[in-house]
Every structure is written in C-alpha cells, then in structure tokens.
Write a structure and sequence with these properties.
The chain is an all-alpha fold and about 90 residues long. The protein is about 85% helix and about 0% strand.
Length: about 90
C-alpha cells in the first residue's frame, strides 16, 4: 500500500471515529431526555394517585379520630386477615 493510500485510510478512520463519537453522544442525550421525561411522568402519576387514594380513604373509610395512614393500615390488616393480597 502506498503512503498516500495509508494516509487516506488513516484520515477515514479518524472521520469514522468522529462520526461514532457524535452518534454515541446523540444517543446518550436522547436516553437522558427519555429517562428524565419518564421519571417526571411517573412521579406526577404516582403523586396524583396517592392524593386521590388519600382523599378516598379520608372521605369513605376513615373512622372518627383516625388518621388516613392509620385507616390504611387498618384496612390492609383486614384485607390480609381475610386471605386477600395487599
């Protein structure tokens, strides 16, 4: 192989490495954005669900003088005692 051919091959390898590095950087940016968006959605959905659950327990299941958490524990205990899963 001639010196000129070796230089072209070397230049092509360098160009390919630059392209590969750019592609990896792009994929990592997409991954970070996607995972971040998923976590934000998950946090919002779970938080909203918990608020609805707490309000339901407070309105329909809580007994006098009992906190929402105490009512949840009591209900979970009743469900476990009856053979149901939590």
């Amino acid at each position: 192989m001639s010196e000129k051919s070796r230089e072209k091959v070397k230049a092509l390898k360098k160009d390919l490495q630059v392209i590969e590095d750019a592609a990896v950087k792009s994929y990592k940016a997409i991954e970070t954005g996607t995972v971040g968006a998923y976590k934000a959605i998950e946090t919002a959905v779970v938080g909203t669900y918990r608020k609805i659950e707490d309000e339901f327990v407070d309105t329909f299941l809580r007994e006098d003088g009992e906190t929402v958490e105490e009512a949840k524990k009591r209900i979970n205990g009743q469900l476990n005692d009856s053979g149901r899963k939590e």
